[in-house]
Design brief:
By secondary structure, the protein is of the alpha+beta class. The strands form four sheets. Strands 5, 6, 7, 8, 9, 10, 11, 12 and 15 form a nine-stranded mixed β-sheet that branches. Strands 18-20-21-22-19 form a five-stranded mixed β-sheet. It has a four-stranded antiparallel β-sheet with strand order 2-3-1-4, with helices on one face. A hairpin with a 2-residue loop joins strand 13 and strand 14. Helix 8 runs parallel beside helix 10. The longest helix is centred in the middle third of the chain and has 21 residues. The protein is globular and about 75 Å long. The chain starts with a helix and ends in an 8-residue tail after the last strand. About 45% of the residues are buried.
Length: about 450
């Protein structure tokens, strides 16, 4: 392929003897696709046993695999059930470097479309105290982010549509870890996205640097003392990578570069970005050195050791006593576990929401569980995706290759002898299965409630 002149004039002298290998990787090596297993729903061992794909373990993420480019990853029922997320192999390394832990509060500041947010959500789990704040400033992209978190069944995630400055002002020193997967010039997208090639110029790179510095300055204010900040891009030039990190550390002496213990990454290039020796501890993933299209990752640690501050928790709109009772009866009738989160209401919808601090421009908190319609409760699609199949009383389970699963994903009704009422439709077998959505059985027919916008 033909690369922009500004790009080749920059990268060729930097890479020197490596340049031909770099070009060969981009021009001749086949594109590898990647998937990351959603370990919130299934272990990697069980996934490998059940998947029809030819998988090769990724060296960059313990939950990820590479597959051939032509593999139809997005069409399998297990994708609709949220068992995996399609992600470039190199992109999965950023959250591995962050190493999220259950019980942590984590902010993903530039989160759409959701690859790294869904990874974080799986790592922090559903336990009490865990919180993911996934933010996207562009409303249209924030809806895509919300949909992906819904598909993987994240319970402890909230979605915001705010600016970095909003978070700096409202949430100072609040988060254990913050991810800035920064908007960048996208040199790592050249093979996949012709628009990235058309938009590229040296001036565009410099405008990205200005924006990246600005975002990082706001992000730094939200990290608690002793916390960590991960900066990543999908571009190769040092101006947006080593150069941005070097400038950030000059402005923020309370941060330092941390060593990425896993995964093992090719080192950053101090000589490309200010000469700081510790820039060698950043990770520079290039397509001739690692699987995937390329990434840069820096783990930055804030000095000090302070717990998250006591902060006023967000006050949700509480359902009335009668509405709580109505929801409790609906829950008891349909599910086998206690209500797993705090119930609150927004307009006609009920949400099962994690505890969270006051947040700017909140779009969605937790799981949209049900809708109040003429004094009765109707479940929502997101609720069934957030549950394990054995947490649901009424269910119909079919093989993922069955005609019934194909019909359900197309939005068709199913004939059944199942019990009347709300019913999960699961894909799997007798030992393991996962909800795809739900329907309502009456008179031997299961009326399909799979969302119209998701149907095949």
């Amino acid at each position: 392929m033909t690369f922009p002149e500004d790009f080749t004039a920059m990268i060729a002298p930097l890479l020197g003897a490596e340049y031909n290998d770099f070009l060969d990787a981009l021009n001749h090596q086949p594109i590898l696709r990647g998937l990351r297993v959603n370990t919130r729903k299934i272990s990697c061992v069980d996934f490998v046993k059940r998947t029809p794909f030819a998988l090769t373990p990724s060296p960059l993420c313990r939950d990820a695999f590479t597959v051939a480019a032509q593999t139809p990853l997005g069409l399998h029922p297990y994708h609709y059930a949220g068992l995996y997320y399609v992600q470039d192999p190199s992109a999965s390394a950023a959250v591995e470097a962050m190493n999220p832990q259950p019980g942590e509060w984590i902010l993903d500041l530039c989160a759409a479309p959701g690859g790294k947010s869904t990874h974080i959500a799986a790592r922090i789990g559903d336990g009490p105290g865990s919180l993911l704040v996934a933010n996207e400033i562009v409303p249209r992209r924030a809806k895509i982010l919300s949909s992906n978190l819904e598909r993987i069944g994240a319970r402890n995630a909230v979605v915001c549509c705010a600016s970095p400055e909003d978070f700096a002002q409202i949430c100072p020193e609040t988060f254990d870890a913050v991810l800035v997967d920064a908007p960048c010039s996208g040199e790592g997208m050249f093979r996949r996205d012709p628009e990235a090639v058309r938009e590229y110029s040296a001036a565009h790179v410099q405008s990205c640097v200005v924006r990246q510095n600005h975002i990082l300055d706001s992000a730094a204010q939200t990290v608690r003392p002793g916390g960590r900040l991960v900066y990543s891009t999908c571009t190769f030039n040092p101006y947006e990578n080593e150069g941005v990190v070097d400038a950030f550390l000059s402005r923020h002496p309370d941060f330092s570069i941390g060593t990425i213990s896993y995964p093992p990454l090719p080192p950053g290039r101090p000589e490309w970005g200010g000469g700081r020796a510790d820039l060698v501890h950043t990770g520079r993933l290039m397509p001739h050195l690692c699987p995937g299209e390329g990434h840069f990752i820096a783990l930055l640690r804030r000095s000090g050791n302070a717990a998250r501050p006591e902060c006023e928790m967000r006050t949700a709109q509480m359902p009335t006593t009668a509405e709580q009772s109505l929801f409790a009866s609906f829950w008891e009738e349909n599910f086998t576990i206690p209500i797993y989160a705090n119930l609150h209401r927004h307009d006609e919808f009920f949400y099962l929401a994690p505890l969270a601090p006051a947040l700017p421009h909140l779009l969605r908190s937790g799981v949209c569980a049900a809708r109040l319609a003429r004094n009765r409760i109707e479940p929502c699609h997101a609720l069934y995706l957030s549950l394990d199949i054995d947490e649901i009383r009424n269910k119909l389970i079919f093989s993922p290759e069955s005609s019934e699963i194909s019909a359900f994903l197309r939005g068709e009704v199913l004939k059944t002898n199942g019990f009347p009422g709300w019913t999960a439709i699961g894909a799997g077998d007798e030992t393991l299965a996962w909800p795809l959505g739900f329907g309502k059985i009456s008179a031997g027919i299961c009326k399909n409630h799979y969302p119209k916008g998701l149907r095949i």
